[in-house]
Specification:
The chain is an alpha/beta fold. 31% of the residues lie in helices and 19% in strands.
Amino acid sequence: MNFNFLSPVSDAVLAHNELLSQQALGKKIKIHSEQKGLPDLNDVQMVIIGVKENRNDINYMGEELNFDAIRTSLYSLFPGNWYSNIADLGDIPAGATIEDTYYALKTIISVLLEKKVIPIIIGGSQDLTYANYRAYDTMAPMVNIVNVDSHFDLGDASVEMKNNSFLGKIILEQPYNLFNYSAIGYQTYFNSQEEIDLMDKLYFEAYRLGEVSHNINMVEPVMRDAHIVTMDLKSVRAAEVGAKQKYSPNGFNGKEICSISRYAGISNKVSSFGIYEYKTSLDTDATPMLIAQIIWYFIEGVNCRVSDDDFNSEVHHQKYNVLVEDDELIFYKSIKTGRWWIEIPFLPNVNNKLKKHTLLPCTHEDYIEASHGKIPERWYKAYKKNVF
């Protein structure tokens, strides 16, 4: 296991950890230290990795990243009733080039995915999502990404990739592994009409901040189908964070962003989770503590995962057939958890992308709407994407 790219957690954080209660999270996790080296990952389910790379930030002014305050905040929290073992692998320093950093992150995530260990990435600029995505090249035929962000980050793929254009590179660069992209909490005035139109044209999903804040539960089925979740701290409103992190007066509040993180953790498919666009600041504890709580809720979610997607036996689910116009929609409801899915029809004469993605997570409200003659939008987009 070649993790030579990683630098250990700082002695200052370890010294602070020594003063904490024996019940604190910092005393329960395995930590990469200068003295003890890298921890053994044989019985570990999740790892924390910092990535000190922000040179592709469009506003980069030479700032160096330091995640000590985040770790100090996270270690001081108390764990829930968790069964998972967690390790902190330290940081990936910025490489000689940005591509070097991407390579290091991609390599480490690939190894972790093979070991079925979930990486929790702290960044750094959000273009690191591109390296995270490329780690799946040999792991999964098609990948779903959920971006919790005020921007779509499509950008101009014809120019050098930045933190506001990484999605364009993901879409256009071979191998084409992206099946679906969902934006959670976008704010219309931050996105050009061309980008909004392109999202529609590609049948990607986009949920505005207002509709998500009004009904936070709508995030759950979107997360249930995600492999990669990437979270931009600019999606959080300015009142919730420190001075250097402030971006927009509108955004998710602390409770909402932690609820979204927990939904990501609960999803059985989510196998990597990243929090990006952190700005190091010595004058506030608010931002590091918020990030620590976001991570805490993700870990909590992973520990609450329930396997309910066995549809081979009718013992585990109820099946509902609904006729909408000329389409027969088939819904499944898990008896164990009450979660819903809708079937996407397999089209044998089409270059079908849905070899294994025949069931799409949905809500009970989708079933109710279908019963009243309305086709669920998620089903329509997935069906159209499959056809084209």
